[in-house]
Amino acid sequence: MIDGPYFVLTVLGVLGTGLVAGVFYAFSSFVMKGLAALPPAQGVSAMQAINVAAETAAFMAVFTGSAVLCAVIAVVTFVLWPDGGTVELLIGSALYLFGSFGVTIAANVPRNDALAKLEPGTREAASFWPGYVREWTAWNHVRTVASAGAALSYLLALT
Q1: Which helix or strand (DSSP H or E) is residue 97 part of?
Q2: Any transmembrane segments, and where (predicted)?
Q3: How far, in Å, CA of 109 to CA of 130, rounded?
Q4: Helix, strand or coil for residue 74?
Q5: Radius of gyration from C-alpha coordinates of the chain
Q6: Cα 24 from Cα 27, distance rounded (Å)
Q7: Domain of 114?
């Protein structure tokens, strides 16, 4: 059984990855649908504002802090190789680091950067918007499942 400081790290891993999964789930289940239902100029403008607002210390601490924590858990797991939960800890770390954090960097952020360069009321923004919503949301589904899977995997490591 996992105990001591390693237990605390794993519990924090469950909480961090679970919180991020919840944020991503909200976007996948209703936020992006609501934005897509708006006229393109309003949807683009709203998403641009959301992307700026997302870069707050509170969200970034949980999102980036969870990535750091997952990396620490993976390294500690390789070093200590505990009797129980090793596979679950490594799977949880990989899911978050690659499926959530990695996908964000490789897929969602570049789309956000492209959207940020557009003027909301333009023809270019209107034609870009439907593809952005479709692709961004598809990648967000991946992030949601990966983050939730990481939280579940860490939770299973504790049992």
Answers
A1: none
A2: 6-27, 57-81, 87-109
A3: 17
A4: helix
A5: 18
A6: 5
A7: 4-157
The CA–CA distances, whole Å, from 27 to 30, 89, 102, 108 equal 6, 27, 18, 12
- d(C-alpha 132, C-alpha 87), whole Å: 36
Per-residue pLDDT of the chain (159 residues; tens, 9 = 90+): 688 888 999 999 999 999 999 999 999 999 999 999 999 999 999 999 999 999 999 999 999 999 999 999 999 999 988 788 899 999 999 999 999 999 999 999 999 999 999 999 999 999 999 999 999 999 999 999 999 999 999 999 999
Cβ-contact 148, 1 below 8 angstroms: no
Which pTM was predicted? Answer: 0.94
Angle ∠(123,128,131) on CA atoms, nearest 5: 145
**Total structural domains in the chain?**
1
